Structures are given as C-alpha cells and as structure tokens.
Amino acid sequence: MIAVGLLEPDCLPSLFPAGELAGLGIDLRCISLSDTVESEVALDRDAEIRLVLLQQVRRRPYSNSCLQVLRRRFPFALFVCVNGRWNEGAARSGKPYSGVLHVRDSEAVYRIRRLISCMNRQTTTMGEYRALFSPREALWWWLDVGISEWVGNPVPLLIFGQRSSTGGIAKAFESYGWVPSEYPLEKLISVSPDRSGLPFYEQNRQIAIVRNRAEVRWLLLHKLVSGLDLLIADNLTVNERRSLKVDYACAVISKPYQNDDLVEAMQVRSPSPGGPAVSPLRE
Q1: Section 90-96 average pLDDT
Q2: Is 204 within 8 Å of 156 (Cβ atoms)?
Q3: What is the pLDDT at residue 88?
C-alpha cells in the first residue's frame, strides 16, 4: 500500500477532496510542518511516504526553508503542488517551487490517481522524473505515466461542444474502443428518453465542453447537468466545482487539459442524488 502525505493549508479549505484519494486503497496521512521527529519509529514512518501533496491557495504559502524541512523528512517522496485557480505557479507568482510537480486543482485528483497507479505499475517511469523538465519533456513524461487500468466496458459516448474542441476528445476515447459521437452543445437538450432528435442509449456517457459561465448556467437552467459525466469549463471556483460534483455527480475539469485526464475522470462517477433546486452558479 502506497503511503501519501497530505499537507493541509492553514486556516483554509482544501483545494481538493481528500476523501477521493482515500478511496484509492492508499495510506493517506495528514502531515504538518509543526510535527517533530522524536524517535527512529517516526523516521521510519516518514521514509515510507512516496508522495507528498502541497496545496497553494495563495502565492507561495511555504518558504524554501519549509520545503527543505519537508524534503529531509520525506527523502524518497515525489512532491506535488496543487495550485488554485488564482495561483497557477509560474503564470501568476513568477516563482514556482522548484523540483515540484505543479498541477491545477481541477485536474489534481485525476493526475494524482494516475501517479499512484503508475507507482504500482511502472516504477521506472516514476524514477525518470526530473525537476528541470522543459514543457515538451514534461508533457511526454505525463503521457508515459498514462491512465490507470481501465474499469468497465466501453459504452456509447456523446460529446457536446464546438467541433474544434470535440474532435481530439473523440479520437482519444476511440483509441480505447469507445464509440464517440460529436454534437453541438444545443443538441444536449434532445438527449432524453422522452425527447426526439438524438439517439438515446440508457448506458451512454456524456461530456460537455462550454466556452463561458453563461453556458454553464444554461445547462443548469435546462436541468442538463445531472446527465453529464464530465463538464469542461473555465473560471469556476472550487466551491462551484464541488457543488456540481456532489449535487449532480458531474466531474469538472478546466482548460487547457490533457485527454488522458479526461479519460481518467470518466472512470470516476458516483450515483447522482438528483441535484438541488437552486443553481450553484450566481450571476
């Protein structure tokens, strides 16, 4: 069982639900900078941790000295920093933590799932990570990490959005044996057992790609979110994404994205409780 250390942010909510990581069959341990190592037993437990998760809600919440303390405590761990929507590492702070994998909060759960799976399947790939990857090298490394083992049988997949956005997604799922079909977003309203316009499959899966928050509100207004497995949208807050996940069982990923993240996300869906009467998105 892989041991994962989660460093919680001070006085702020987590950027991603730790419960989704606990369901992966890992040993999830909450760690703190104030912890002291007082015995060899504690040293042994720290050495067991192979993945340390940091959360960057604001700009650089941890100093370089704090990171050095963590590196000494967990010498064999890969460090991953989850960045919030207003703090995306180099793009906003200009000083991303060096030697740390940076992921956005909307894709963090799925990428961490891929990392944990790769630790079990391809230890050599994990050992090839280098802190000074170029963007192209980093992309190829993530592609080598790959998605986790496929769960379930391929079923019909309906992808809604602009043709320029849906084509690459359709090809990605087609390579796994799925049968994807592409439609404009407006056609989503026709996908229902009691409506005509598109073929309906009881066991189909659905992805929607929107361009702005107004289109998300349109989906909520027409009560279409509960039928989606995955929504690709920008500029949604952490609370809004969580509301869509909890109330509608709809995963949310921001752009830009990797197709492997989408495939990983489609493997994770909890039963939909029906959704609330009030929209989680406000004007």
Answers
A1: 61
A2: yes
A3: 54
